Amino acid sequence: MAIEVISKEENVQAEQGELPRKSQSNPPWTTDELILALDLYLRHRSSLPDKIHPEVQALSQLLGQIGSTLGLNRGGSFRNENGVYMKLGNFRRWDPKYVENGRKGLAKGNKNEKVVWDEFAEMPSKLAIAVAAIRRAVESSSAEAKALTGVSNEPDVIEAEEGKVLTRLHRYRERDRNLVQAKKKDVMKKQGCLRCEACGFDFAIAYGQVGNGIIDVHHTKPVHTLKPGEKTKLSDLALLCSNCHRLIHSKRPWLSVEQVRALRKEAQSNAI
Ligand SMILES: [Zn+2]
Ligand SMILES: [Zn+2]
To answer: How far does the centroid of ligand 1 lie from the alpha carbon of residue 272, in Å?
Structure first.
């Protein structure tokens, strides 16, 4: 019988969830999870908490909840205290204050740690808003929060900087039937047609009667910028054709309607 030798390093990585264990596998940390871990890291930057610290345990539990929302939590050692503790050690590597004296953090980690560090570590208010929004989305018992569990990741949609949970919430809200109908009705009443705000495409003109009423509705404000309980205003919504809408969500950070208009203008002037 062949005996598999697992190196010490592999074991450490497995505990962090980067490598599959022989008995089970933990998926890599998502951006959402790394944002929450970074928040904990920065609050204890000078002296990291140990595995039994209440905040490490609380984060471990919250990550378990996020994992369930995203369909990643299969139990076992998923984001246990040890995994959270190791992840804090991983952030050391990207912390200029820590490495300035020649010290090194844990070498092996997830490449996303650097991305999250660069996007949030020097921006405390941006980090605080993202952390609060992720917590609200996961800890809420609203129908909306429950619905996130059933939403799958869309291949064309690039994850927002704030991660998968808020991306799902954003896309879920864009499809809210009542909101979509209210927006279309409002524009129809004011303008008499439903045109893409980025390129002017009108399904009813392009396809005749069959195209009547067809247009996407896009949230121009990322959901995490909305305060708890704040209702979406119709003016926060934009009508977009499917192409422009797809383009907007294909870049990180997501493009604005104005940016798509400018891109079209630039491409058209280059073509002449
Ligand atoms: Zn368009
Ligand atoms: Zn959209």
So the answer is: 20
